[in-house]
Write a structure and sequence with these properties.
Blueprint lengths: L16 H15 L4 E2 L1 H8 L3 H13 L3 E3 L6 E3 L1 H12 L3 H16 L3 E7 L2 E8 L14 E3 L4 H8 L3 H10 L16
Antiparallel strand pairs: 1-3, 2-3, 4-5, 5-6
Helix pairs in contact: 1-3, 2-3
């Protein structure tokens, strides 16, 4: 007899209240325009008694997740959060993360989807999902093209700061590339 798959609850069956509160404090401080918050602000925003907010903030500070300025009692995010973020990034494969989204886009629009990074004046292709068509683009992973002559390069430039675009285009040696330009129509 086959066993039925056990449905997992969408919410965890329990929560650790102090962890939940600590994470809320970290997120609250991170969302402040000044990047800091005092104990009174924390206790009011978290709806916690001031001593409870202080105890949680003290533990977070002792672990480097929060810090206070030398002349201030206001809390800021600690540099240990940066360390942890960098460690998390060490284990992220951008290609694996992007592939499901790229596949969905390729299926929806029926076109090949590329993931590339800007490397000085060129786009460097790092992932590709082919469309389900007989005619596909002949791009190569690890291949490069000048930023100015690909749709992907132009899209990257369109969302880059103007000063960066000017610097990139100034560094480009723009030349006609017959393989990427349509011929003039016949008379």
């Amino acid at each position: 007899m086959m066993k039925r798959a056990v449905k997992r609850p969408t919410k965890p069956p329990y929560k650790v209240q102090v962890l939940d509160r600590a994470i809320n404090i970290i997120e609250f401080i991170g969302q402040q325009t000044t990047g800091e918050a005092g104990l009174r602000e924390l206790s009011a925003a978290m709806k916690l008694h001031k001593t409870t907010a202080h105890r949680i903030a003290h533990v977070l500070e002792s672990r480097g997740l929060l810090r206070r300025g030398r002349d201030s009692s206001r809390y800021r995010l600690g540099l240990h959060l940066y360390d942890l973020g960098c460690q998390a990034l060490d284990h992220v494969n951008i290609r694996d993360e992007a592939r499901p989204f790229m596949t969905r886009v390729a299926l929806e629009v029926g076109e090949t989807v590329h993931l590339a990074v800007l490397d000085r004046t060129e786009v460097l292709y790092i992932e590709r999902v082919e469309a389900q068509r007989s005619l596909t683009m002949g791009s190569k992973l690890g291949g490069r093209n000048p930023v100015y002559c690909t749709a992907l390069g132009k899209a990257i430039l369109a969302y880059s700061p103007d000063i960066e675009v000017e610097q990139i285009l100034a560094a480009c040696r723009m030349e006609a590339r017959p393989e990427t330009h349509l011929p003039a129509p016949l008379p």
